[in-house]
Amino acid sequence: MAMSPEKEHPKEAFGWAATNSSAVLSPFKFSIRATGEKDVTIKVLHCAICHYDLHMIENELGFSIYPIVPGHEIVGVVTEVGSKVQSFKIGDRVGVGCMVGSCLSCSSCNENLENYCPKMIRTFAAKYHYGTTTYGGFSDHMVADEHFVVRIPDNLPLDAAAPLLCAGITVYSPLRYYGLDKPGMHTGVVGLGGLGHIVVKFAKAMGVKVTVISTSPNKKKDAMESLGADAFLVSRDQNEMEAAMGTMDGIIDTVFAMHPLLPLIGLLKSHGKLVMVSGPPEKQLDLPVFPLLIGRKTLGGSLIGGMKETQEMIDFAAKHGISADIEVIPMDYVNTAMEHLLETDVKYRFVIDIANTLKPTA
User: Fold this and answer.
1) Which of 76, 107, 275, 361 has the maximum number of C-beta atoms within 10 A of its C-beta?
2) Residue 2 has pLDDT above 50, yes or no
3) Average pLDDT for 7-22
4) Mean pLDDT of all residues in the chain?
């Protein structure tokens, strides 16, 4: 029986990890696999922090594997390529998102939907098919199969491109799949955070009228002046919500917390689509069915995107000059950043400067 690549010629790596669900990260030395024939080794330069990182650290989803080296919005440069790698060369600017493996043979994989493969392998806190643990981008190096690596165009700043590897594809894919990307359409965006602010940017670049729907009136200026939204609704303002009833072709709902769906369904035109891209784990949102029947409305979901579409998204972002609004932080600020993230006190994504601030311990 063949040994795993990691055990044959392991590479030393260094990062920050959580060893239990306390949500505290600390320096951590570990091993990653050797560069296989279809692998690329990447020097990590920046890694963004996603809410999913925090959920996994705290084991909110129930399947965390410790120790956890988080991070799945990863950008860097290629430092080594395997003998059969065709898409990349040393020095290329690249990114890795939410997954590093799948079966590549099921119906989903054959349709370029590796994200829906039953054997999809998450970038961190998961197991490769040969049994070793995956480690994410809060680290100096990583190895990944070239199939799960995307090319970052030269005109995209690496730090601000990092969040596109998760947040970007999470909102780009449903805009395309549910047909909410047509010029002149009216799309609502629920929540103006790490996901929501990128929905606004993508939808506007597609020629779509955008209304931001938020519980926070103080986000109106950012939504309309900084991001270019066409309108802003305070979801707790009954008069504003009633005035907008039946005006939207679709809504992308990015909110992780508990919230009512009935008012959002009411905002939709006939045949309108409410698409969930987030939601509270192990909690149920009330689903009012009858309002869906009146007007033949749709409630759908979407989870990241396949590799072909992820590259398409990155190329679209480069073409239209779209990147995330970020706050760059040093590695040793990460625990404080997690606290701010929990309070949604960030505009709109923390990005760790791995290259300049991740310092190995003696």
Assistant:
1) 76
2) no
3) 86
4) 94
Residue 68 pairs in a beta bridge with 18
3-state SS, the chain, equals CCCCHHHHCCEEEEEEEECCCCCCCEEEEEEECCCCCCEEEEEEEEEECCHHHHHHHCCCCCCCCCCECCCCCEEEEEEEECCCCCCCCCCCEEEECCEEECCCCCHHHHCCCHHHCCCCEECCCCECCCCCECCCCCECEEEEEHHHCEECCCCCCHHHHHHHHCHHHHHHHHHHHCCCCCCCCEEEEECCCCCHHHHHHHHHHCCCEEEEEECCHHHHHHHHHHCCCCEEEECCCHHHHHHCCCCEEEEEECCCCCCCCHHHHHHEEEEEEEEECCCCCCCCCCCCCHHHHCCCCEEEECCCCCHHHHHHHHHHHHHHCCCCCEEEECHHHHHHHHHHHHCCCCCCEEEEEHHHHCCCCC
The C-alpha angle with vertex 96 and arms to 201 and 10, in degrees rounded to 5, equals 165
